[in-house]
Amino acid sequence: MDLPVMPPVKPMLAKSVAKIPPGMQYEAKWDGFRAIVHRDADEVVIGSRTGKPLTRYFPELVTALRANLPQRCVVDGEIVIAHEGRLDFDRLTERIHPADSRVRMLAERTPAGFVAFDLLALGDDSLLDTPLAERRAALVGALSGAREPVYVAPATTDTTVAEQWFEQYEGAGLDGVIAKPLDLPYRPDARLMYKIKHERTADVVVAGYRFHKSGPVVGSLLLGLYDSEGALQHVGVCAAFSMKHREELVAELEPLRLADVSEHPWARWAEEEAHESARLPGAPSRWSGKKDLSWVALRPERVVEVAYDHMEGDRFRHTAQFRRWRPDRTPESCTYAQLEEPVRYDLSEVLSAPPSR
Q: Which regions span the lipid bilayer (predicted)?
């Protein structure tokens, strides 16, 4: 491979802001695997956000990218999998598997797509120092003949359209809007773009915690919600506390600490088969590797209000944020019924939209 921008390349990143800023280019925020694709004739390398290759996990995309990308180019985008009209992140994570036979079986059963939204190089030219507006025009031209499953992400400079996307596209599994300054050069691993994500709150049960990597202070709180059958399901974690708050939480939660985990609703968390019928903390994962997943069990009696952006099935998609304790709420009142469901929106409507508006 001999390209003006060689792998590995870490993608340019975004920082969170509360509102959509004016005077920029806007795109939907895709919920998939960020990937930078290098193509030099038949050679294709799909790089992850960390720079490590994803190529072997998406053999069907390698074929599709050869058929749809220019002969020599570097493209930034997102690998996604659609299911029943919306993005499905869980099916995407299943593809990171050591067995080649399983990867190929899933490639046929749940094929992935690639949504392109930036162009870093074309032919012999690096576009890293080229302003975004020019890179966008070059991307649309270079991929004008692209067909499913390779798409050009819709983009607009109209804030009214961006606000509509922010409200509508969540129903298709997208999780916000990205805003990019029109004169922005491409700067790998720098947070120079802006992301605007949905934020909602929920009252959840604190049923345990994990220690922080630095020592015997709280690293994250383990959160639960009761399902329709009255079972407490693990829905995610709450983290990002100050060190002082982490220390205070250990003392604050000590009266709830269980000496015998067998009395806890998640007592079977260490048994792999138990995870097949319930959501429990410490589920075996290819992502966790040898990470210590042990946790401190608490009597599920405290309720906390947390902020979250959206759900992935029956769990929080990302780490929730602590807002306040809710001594006025009973644990049994913390059910899935309180969660707001976005109005469904067909993903095909997003992917079939014109590249620029």
A: none
The winner for highest mean pLDDT among 128-137, 195-204, 254-263, 330-339 is 128-137
d(CA 131, CA 226): 50
Domains of the chain: which residue ranges?
Answer: 13-197+346-351, 200-326
- 10 among known catalytic residues: no
> pLDDT tens digit string along 214-253?
888 999 999 999 998 999 999 999 988 999 999 999 999 9
Mean pLDDT over all residues of the chain? 89
Phi then psi dihedrals of residue 142, to 5 deg: -65, -30
Query: Which residues touch 178 (CB under 8 Å, ≥6 apart)?
Result: 14, 26, 27, 28, 29, 193, 194, 195, 196
The CATH classification number of 13-197+346-351 equals 3.30.470.30
**What distance in Å separates the CA atoms of residue 171 and residue 150, rounded to the nearest whole number?**
21
Measure the CA–CA gap between 119 and 341, rounded to whole angstroms: 35
User: What would the CATH number be for the domain defined by 200-326?
Assistant: 2.40.50.140
In the set 29, 197, 213, 290, the catalytic residue is 29
Q: 3-state class of 26 per DSSP?
A: strand
